[in-house]
Structure formats: C-alpha cells, structure tokens
Amino acid sequence: MSSVTIEDLDIRLSGVDIIRQLNLEVGTGEFLVLLGPSGCGKSTLLHSIAGLIDVHDGRMAIGGRDVTWADPKDRGIGMVFQSYALYPTMSVEKNLSFGPRIAGVPKAEITKRVKRAASMLQLTELLHRKPAQLSGGQRQRVAIGRALVREASVFLFDEPLSNLDAKLRGELRRELKALHQELGATMIYVTHDQVEAMTLASRIAVMKSGVIQQIDTPAAVYAKPANMFVAGFLGAPSMNFVTGQLQRNGDARRFVSPTLQVDVSAYPFVQPPAVGQPVVLGVRPQHVTLTPAEATGTAGRAQVSMVEPMGSHQIIWLDAQGLSLAADLQAEMTQVVDGHVGFTLDAAHISLFDPGTQARL
C-alpha cells in the first residue's frame, strides 16, 4: 500500500494539451474515484500513473518514490482494464499466475497468491476454465484477480464494469467495495458512472477538460457542489437550475425569479452577496415538494408535464412558466399529467451559484 503524489502534471498528446498543471494527492489505503464525462482526461491521467502515457512536464511519486519516468513494470501498480485483456488460450489459473511467473516469483508463493485471490473473488471452481467459458462478470473477476496476485502498491481501474449489464455491475460494485475494505489497498478508479463513484469512493475527484473541478467525499460533493458543472453532473435527474436575483428586506434575503421565490436568509454564503445580484439557484429533485395549487406558502406553481414511474419512487416533471423542473416523489403520490400543482423547496438543501463564473456562492 502506497500513497500517490502528482505535482504540476502536464500531458500533451499530438500537440494538444490534455492535462495542465494538475496536482493530486491520494492517501495510503484510499479509494479515489476519477469521475467525469467522456473526454475529460480521467483515463489519460490514470494511464499516466500506470506509465502507459509519458508526461510532458511535472512529477509523479508512488510511495514517496519518484516514478515520473519509470517503466510500468517498475511502478508497483496493478491495473484492470475495461476490456478484460485476458489471454484466451490460458486457463483462469494461468491468467492469474502469468505476471508473477514472468517476474520470477517462487512457485509456492505464486500458488499461495492465486489461491487467495481466487477465494476472495469466488473463482476457485473456475481455475481450470478458459476465458471463452466464462461470463462477462467472471472474466472481469479474473482481470481483477490478475492485478491482486501482483500484490501491487496501488491498484488502478479503468472503467472495469462498463461492459457489464446493470445487475452484474451492481454485484461487482459490492465485491470491489468489500475487497477494498478487506485489503485496505490504495485504489484509483476511473468511471463516468456517478452511482459507481458515490458507492465506491472514499473521495471523488470530478474532472472537466483535464481540470479537477472538486475533490471531496461523496456526500460533500453531492450536497455542496463547488460549481454548476459538478452540481449538474451528479444526480439523476440532475439538479434543477433557476436564474433569478437576490433581494433584501432588513436582515432577510430572498431569491426571486418569475418562476419561484425562496427565503435564503440562512444560506451559508462564502462571501456576502450584493443586493440585486444575479444568481442561479440549484435544488435537487428530492428537495422539491408538491402541494395543492391553491395552497399558501408555495415557492411557485406549475403544470405536470410528465410522470416517470421508477418503481419505489417516481420523477414528476413540471412546467413552471416554460422552465422544466424535476421532483422526486414516493410512488404512492399520484399526479395527473396536465394537472396544476404548487411546489416548495427545502431551503436547507439549496445551492446558489454565480451565473458568470458558475462558482458556488
């Protein structure tokens, strides 16, 4: 187990800057998830840590040892790819033991490592099968086991579950979390799937265009996004955004827009805002509550435009004077399309952003 330190990292591919001046510290035993849309640079960053992509500038250390220009085999890493990358003519046992055999590890030690990895990943009964005889989930278990038998300092995962169906993804996600808890190993995991990020990570680093937008615990990133990109990327459906102004009446502050009004007096501003300042209010669907259209105290009124049943809950889409809002409600709460409702927001869970910089206020 080792820490990973990245300082002022620049990566340039075909003359194009992919990552610029990136700094990152991954603690020993941490499960860090690099999260972001396709093309944001997360896989490029992971491959540079593995030594598969040369850096243009900067420094990289694993366990305090400078590995900026070290070969992949000398970095003490184990990597799991999206495409399994198994040897088709070898049995599961041979696939698992290949790395240590090439490295000259004694046979008894290899057997011990393979047995332990197979037991942890429920592969013991499959050791004599070939990859073609395995399901997708079993193949990915073998790929993970191959990294484990190296007894690496750091484990790197490049979207390892993206080729699996939803049920298998859920099962392997739980197994990976249990594996990290058992091993206590340092793991860096790349994904664009926010569910994987929220359930697996000790910390999440949200990336956009090669820049880390926010790095924090899953709960902190979800509840207090640093900017509108992070707020909109996390959550399904994503956060509702409403543009308006701040107004002041004595000590009270209100967010006012043509669509809704909310008391934001208790909002923890980073800096005191100016009166009349344009702001964007963000609120997640689960913090939107529907009320009868004629009820007093509503933040606004809207027409139900669509209902999406989700089993235990449902997403109600509202048309509030041309603005689309989502509300996440229990399945038992029946709403009629084209019906009119009022709605309120939980002011304790709103976010306010600067419309220019898109940063959290």
Automatic annotation (TrEMBL):
PROSITE patterns: ABC_TRANSPORTER_1 (PS00211), ABC_TRANSPORTER_2 (PS50893)
Stored InterPro entries: AAA+_ATPase, ABC_transporter-like_ATP-bd, ABC_transporter-like_CS, ABC_transpr_MalK-like, ABC_transpr_MalK/UgpC-like, Mo/tungstate-bd_C_term_dom, NA-bd_OB-fold, OB_MalK-like
GO MF terms, alphabetically ordered: ATP binding
Annotated keywords: ATP-binding, Cell membrane, Membrane, Nucleotide-binding, Transport
Record bears the keyword Phosphoprotein: no
CDD domains, A to Z: ABC_MalK_N
Domain ABC transporter: 4-234
Pfam families according to UniProt: ABC_tran, OB_MalK
Stored PANTHER family: MALTODEXTRIN IMPORT ATP-BINDING PROTEIN MSMX (PTHR43875), OSMOPROTECTIVE COMPOUNDS UPTAKE ATP-BINDING PROTEIN GGTA (PTHR43875:SF1)
Protein's name in the database: Sn-glycerol-3-phosphate ABC transporter ATP-binding protein UgpC
Source organism per UniProt: Ideonella azotifigens
Record lineage: Bacteria, Pseudomonadati, Pseudomonadota, Betaproteobacteria, Burkholderiales
